[in-house]
Amino acid sequence: MASHLSLGNVILGNLMVAENIAFYLIAAVMVFAAIRVVTTRNIVHAALYLVLVLAGVAGQYILLAAEFIAVTQVLVYIGAIVVLFLFGIMLTRAPTGKMDDSNNEQRIVGAGIAGLLLAVMGYTLWKAYRDGQFGEMQVQRTSDVATSIFSTYLIPFEVISVVLLAALIGAIVLARRD
Amino acid sequence: MILNQFLMLAAILFCTGVYGVLARRNGVMVLMSVELILNAVNINLVAFGAYHSSLGGGLDVSGQVFALFVIAIAAAEVGVGLALVLMLYRNSRSIDVDDIDLMKG
Amino acid sequence: MIAAASQPFMLTHVWIVPGLMALSFLIILFFGKRFSERVTSGIGIFFIAVCFALACVSVVNWVQRINHPVADTSADEALVTQPDGAPAPIAGQSDAEAIIGANRGPVEAAATEAAKVGESTTTGAEPAAVTEPAAVTEHGAESEHEAKASPIVTRWTWFGWGDIKFEFGFIADGLSILLLFTVTAISLLVHIYSKEYLHGDVRFTHYYAFLSMFSAAMLFFVTSSNTIQMLIGWELVGVCSFVLIGHWWEEKDNSDAAVKAFLTNRVGDVGLIVGVVITFYAAGATSFNVLHINQYALSPGANQTLLLVGGLCLFAGVTSKSGQFPLHTWLPDAMAGPTPVSALIHAATMVVAGVYLIARLYSVFYEGLNIGENFVNYIAVIGGITIVGGALLAFVQTDIKKVLAYSTISQLGYMVMALGVGAWTGAIFHLFTHAFFKACLFLGAGSVSHAAHHTFDMRKMGGLRKFMPATFATFIIGTIALMGIFPFAGFWSKDEVLAGSLDGQQQPYTFMLVLGIVGAAMTCLYMSRLIYLTFYGDYRGHGTPHESPKVITIPLWILAIGAIVLGFLNLPNLFKIGEIDYTTRFEHFVEPTFAFPEINHAEFNVGLAVGTTVVAAVAIFLAYQYFWLRKSPFLGVRDKVGAFAWGYKVLDNKYYLDHLYTDIIVGGVKGPIARASYWFNNQVIDTVVNSAGQGAAATGRVVYTQVDQKVIDGLVLSTGTGADESGEALRHMQTGRVQQYAALLFAGVAVLAIILVIFV
After folding, report:
1. C touches which chains (3+ CB pairs under 8 A)?
2. What are the structural domain ranges in chain B?
3. How far is B20 from chain C (nearest CA, A)?
4. Does one domain contain both A112 and A171?
5. Across the interface, which of C732, C734, C742 has its CB nearest the CB of B103?
6. C65 and C123 in contact (C-beta within 8 Å)?
7. Is residue C382 predicted with pLDDT exceeding 60?
8. What are the distances in angstroms from CA A70 to CA A60, C249, C570?
9. Is residue A95 part of a domain?
10. What CATH code is carried by the domain that includes residue A27?
11. Mutating which of C738, C740, C745, C757 best tests the B interface, going by the most B Cβ atoms within 10 A?
12. Are residues A33 and A68 in the same domain?
């Protein structure tokens, strides 16, 4: 495709209004869902909120013109990992209703640490990338990604497959009922 | 769009994930929080990749590739992790992380 | 040398006499033990005989010198100048020098010049000769018929330092030659006497060695030309006295007496040394030479106060050595020594060292104490008190030697008193005659004890005149001489002393005269008592006494003859017949003419002579009445009259002086000091030592408990416990809960991130 000179762009110049609105919407949903993941008492609800987060992430990928990874995200994460989570919940007989004590006593400390991290990271990012303006968004086609994987990043790709194999075997071994 | 908004988003997700890792009692929930963290990282990677490409120095897909590998690793990790949780449940009939304190000094 | 030809050998080499005796001492000391008694005493007698002969030669030489003075010729021939004595020490540079004095008249005028020039080592320079020979020749020429010879001084500069000259020298003048003669004569007789008296003694050799040593020291003393040398001689005779008194030191009394003699003399010697130093500084701090000091004393600008103080300090030494009151206490105790020693040292020679000192430095005393202008002065008073005090004590003694000792003290008082009233010749003449008759008396006492089985207690004697006629005869002669009966020696000398006090210098010394006459009376009384108790009555001892051998009696006779005859050496001018010069010979030859004050010579007073003879006769009669007739009003008076009993008690206790010295003065110092030292030792020193030990022990304990146990062991243990407890504390961090670890991990990451952000 050509540039992302969308209608919004044309109308409003360099503001790129449409993408921004989309971003902020998705971001809001994601944040809310993420917070719900870590605060909800119902574990299945947590899994579902996680789905929401993952979907939002995929949406962000689209906004960043990374189509391949967006689709991969949906396929792998939502399609496989979340299902895995649900199976895990089921197999461990986790109570599917509300649980009273889903947080341990590290709540406050954890909040503190998280807050601290957020502050640090936020400050740093704001300072460092104040002038980080996207130029013209280039569409990253799947074929480019494929080319990159099988040429530049061939070895990591092979290693990844070995890792997956190892994980597979490991999981089987661990979960085996002996 | 500016780069910072993606990075800030990623930061928020990351910290939420950190909170979840530290504060959740259920092992599965801990794993979920770990997923949150990994996703935040992925966003970062892809955002930087896009930024880099958009600056006009040629197309750079390393962000996506990296993110792909992270997803693969995440998948492997979740698999093994859940297998662990399963074993834990089998041994002690509970998946309360706090109960795993055999290494207590 | 030209100058030497006019001076006789003996006079310039008078040091040979003490030198020979010193040689005798060394020979006897190192080789005497190998020889028999005969050889040892032979060596001693030989040497002292040679010295006596040399002394006689010296006397002849001196008489010739007086008769033929060489004052005028010396100015021409004597200007053989040698290099002037440089201040740097030049050891061994020796010059014989004759100090030719001008007449007595110009002495004062030339004295200041003499003081300047007199210390140079130029030969034969007259006091002003180096600068003004002409004037001297004039002096010599016009006073030729009056010129009397001056002393001959032989000296070597030991070392010089700035203006000060330390010299080593010998003086030969009338006084020294007289003493030379006296000392060698008496010493010779004592040497011969001792051969028999100490026959078979356990320390015969040692005795003769120290007899020689003493003679050497005394001769050295009387021929010394400077006060430092006199000090040396003085101390040496003191040491010999100590050794000889304590000859039989196996008896504690004898060694106590020797120590007492030495220490009492030491007390006086402090004053002597101070006096030597004061006179040295008074005379300009250049020389210790006696002539120099005398010249200074006579010079018009002399410091009167210094001379007075110096004289009194010197007199302190005389007080102790010559047995003046109150330091006489050692003399009676010194009788613990052998009798010949008592005769030689404590009668004739050593005790007169003090008198000699005053006579030698007479100008200092004469000017310092204003003898010429007073009617009383310290020396005369002390002398007078000594006369009477000593005589009183002689009355209550039972020991024959102690009576003679107190008699000696009394007679020494006469000599000192005579010097105090200005009768210089009287004092020296009395010294001379006293030496002979007192030695005679002491040796007689020795002879008596020899017969009475070695006891001196008169209560165990009696009636000895029948058994020992020779001893008795000589003893009587000595006694009469002592009493001062005409025409024996004591009369002439004692009378001269009394005439001197009667005449005085410008006014009579009346008080001294009275004391002298009273003393004479008492002398007669106690000597009569002694004669009676020893030689009359019945023999109260055991065994049969017999006469002593010739070796003992011959010296007695020699001395007795001397006691008779020697008085005629100084016949007063009253007896002058025609132009023959035979009166006042002693005075003519002995009295110094150089650096000597102009003293008034008292003429023989017939009334005084008669008066004293009467007094003596009365005293002898009283004694005769008391002892021989047993019909005296004084018989038994001690029991009847309380005063006499009290007086007896005081005399018996020797005026409590011994008690004062030993118990009060010495004890008062020694006791508190001893107690204080003991207290100091116990409380302070022991405390210090003990506390040092205790301190060390306590420190050890403290170090052990506090430092070692607590600190060091604590340190060591604490490393273990520290590791233990820190592990215990840190253990709680390991909860085993993974999320906790994760929390820490993330917290660390956050902190690291902050740091990186801030600093990088």
Report:
1. A, B
2. 4-96
3. 10
4. no
5. C734
6. no
7. yes
8. 8, 140, 166
9. yes
10. 1.20.120.1200
11. C738
12. yes
| pLDDT tens, residue by residue, C218-246 | 999 999 998 999 999 999 999 999 999 99
Q: Residue B74 has what pLDDT?
A: 95
Report yes or no on A2 lying in a domain. no
**pLDDT on residue C589:** 78
| Chain B nearest-CA residue for A150 | B65
Q: Report pLDDT digits (tens) over C246-300.
A: 999 998 999 999 999 999 999 999 999 999 999 998 888 888 888 888 888 888 8
- CATH class of residue range B4-96: mainly alpha
Indicate yes or no: CB of B50 within 8 angstroms of CB of A134. yes
In a domain, A1, yes or no: no
CB proximity under 8 Å: A 97-126 to B: 99, 101-104, 106-107, 109-111, 113-115, 117-118, 121-122, 125-126
Domain assignment present for residue A74? The answer is yes
Question: Strands of C164-172's sheet, edge to edge?
Answer: C94-98, C152-161, C164-172
Partner B contacted by A52 (CB < 8 A) = no
Residues B52-78 have a mean pLDDT of 90
User: Do A21 and A63 fall into the same domain?
Assistant: yes
Q: What angle do CA C619, C622, C624 make, to 5 degrees?
A: 110
Whether chain B has a CB inside 8 Å of the CB on C738: the answer is: yes
Contact B97 C746 (CB under 8 A): no
Contacts by C129-137, CB closer than 8 A, 24 or more apart? C129/C75, C129/C78, C129/C79, C130/C79, C130/C81, C133/C75, C133/C79, C136/C75, C136/C102, C137/C72, C137/C75, C137/C76
- pLDDT by residue (tens digit) across C532-566? 888 888 887 777 777 888 888 888 999 999 888 88
Both A26 and A61 in a single domain? Answer: yes
Q: How confident is the model at residue C73 (pLDDT cuts 50, 70, 90)?
A: very low
The range of the structural domain enclosing residue A156 comes to 141-178
- The answer on A145 and A133 residing in a single domain is no
Residues 4-33 of B with CB under 8 A from A: 4-9, 11-29, 31-33
**Shared-domain flag, residues A66 and A125:** yes
Contact A65, B50 (CB under 8 A): yes
Is there a single domain that holds both residue A78 and residue A165?
no
Q: Does A146 lie in the same domain as A103?
A: no
Q: Using CA atoms, how far apart are residues C245 and C288, in angstroms rounded to an integer?
A: 32
**Interface residue of C737, C741, C745 to substitute, partner B, most B CBs within 10 Å:** C737
> Domain tally for chain A?
2
Residue C225: phi, psi to the nearest 5? Answer: -100, -10
Backbone angles phi, psi at C449, to 5 degrees: -70, -35
C737 and chain B: CB distance < 8 Å anywhere? yes
On the question of pLDDT at C632 being above 60, the answer is yes
Contact B105 C737 (CB under 8 A): no
- Please return the burial class of C468, using the count of CB atoms within 10 Å of its CB with bins 0-12, 13-18 and 19+: buried
**Between C640 and C382, the higher pLDDT residue:** C382
Q: Do C736 and B21 touch (CB under 8 A)?
A: no
Confirm or reject contact between B78 and chain C (CB < 8 A).
no
Q: Which helix (H) or strand (E) holds C96?
A: strand C94-98
How far apart, in Å, are the Cα atoms of C607 and each of C495, C499, C568, C603, C611?
11, 10, 20, 11, 6
C739 touches chain A (CB under 8 A): yes
> Which partners does chain A have (≥3 C-beta pairs < 8 Å)?
B, C
Q: Is A123 on the interface with C (CB under 8 A)?
A: yes
Q: State the nearest Cα–Cα gap between B89 and chain C, in angstroms.
A: 16
Beta strands in C413-466 (DSSP E): none
Q: What is the pTM of this model?
A: 0.62
The predicted pLDDT at position C538 comes to: 80
The complex's ipTM works out to 0.90
Encode pLDDT of C668-711 as tens digits.
Answer: 788 888 888 888 888 888 888 888 899 999 988 888 888 888 88
